[in-house]
Amino acid sequence: METSGGKDVLSQPVRPWGLGGSDIGALLGLSPHRSPLDVWLDKVGAGSPMGLGIVRTQNELCEGPSQRYEPARTRQLNVGNVSRELSGGMHLRFGQHLEPFVAREYERLTGHVTQEHTATIRHPRHSHLFAHVDRLVSVAGAPVLDSSGLVCTDTLLECKTASAFSAAQWGREWSDQVPPAYLAQCIWYTTLTGCTTAHLAVLLGNSELRVYKVLHDPALGERLIGLALDFWDEHVMSAKPPTPRSRQEVERLFPKHVQGVSVCANAQTLRDLRRLRKIGSLTKRLERECDAIKDRLAVSMGEAERLTHGGKTLATWRACAPSQRLDLARLRRERPDITSSYALTSQASRRLVLATGDVHE
Fold it and tell me: What's the CA gap between 144 and 121, in Å, rounded?
C-alpha cells in the first residue's frame, strides 16, 4: 500500500488536477486496487474539476512559463503543501501514519539522511503531469535542493507498508524486484525529478524492513509520459471513458439499460456465448454431483457431529443456532405505515440473462 506522509492529511489541500505517480500503475493495468476507469472517474467524475465543468489550459495549470525538459533540472511548480489522495480507507491512513517511522528505519539502516518533500513537482512541458515524492535522500550530507529550489540529489525515497501475506511479491533486498505498480511509480518519479535512483523502503507485516533500488530507465520513463499524455487527451479532455474491463465497470458507466436498444454480436461475442453456455451446463452437472455426494455423507453420519478418520476430523454437521427473521409480508399487510416509513430504495442492478436456443455464426 502506498504511504503518504505523517501529517494530518485531512487538514491539507487536495492534490492538483492531473496525473500523478499513483495513477500510472493503474493506467498500465498493474494496480490491484485501481483500474484505468477508476482513474478516469477520479478525473472526470462528478466531484472532479472536469465534472464540475472546469476545463483548465496548460497555462492555468502551470505557475510560470514552461521550460524545455531537462531531466537533471526539472522545474518545480506550485510549491504549496499538497496531500496525496484521501481515498483508500484505513489501510492508506495506516500507511500515512507509518511513513515517518519507515523513513527513520531507512536512515538507521543506510546511514543516509532524508528530507521530506511536500511540494508538487511538475513536468516542465506538460504541467498536468506531476509527482509527489515521499522523501529526498542526502548522501554524505549533500544538499537535496539547490538555491533555486530544484532537486539536485540523485536519489529519492518512497516509503511503503505491506501485509506479510504479500511478501512473495517482493524479491531480494536492494534489487528492483518490487510489485509492478510500484516499479512504474518509481520510474515516473525519477523521470519528473531528474533523479537517477529511487530507493523503496517497505515495512512488511510490521516486522521486517526491506530496501529496494530502482534505477532510472529513460526509455521507459518516456513511454510512461507518452501513455499518460495519450490517456489525458483521449479520455480525460474528451470525457470519453476507457474501455471497461468487467461487468462491474460497465455497470458503473451504464447503471441502467436503454429500452429498445440492441447491439449485434460479433464473432468473438458468439464464441464467448457458446463457451459460457458450455461452462454453465458443466457447472450444473458438477453442482448436482456435489449435492449427491453430500447426501451420501449425511446418510453415513446420521446423528453424529463429526466424520473422522485416523483421529482427524474430516467433516462436521452441526445444527446452527436458532435465528429470528422479520415477517416482512405480515408487517406490510398489518402495519403498512411502519413499513413505508423505514423502507429504503436501492439502485437496481442489471442482470445478464442468456436467451435459450443455439448460437450460430
Answer: 14
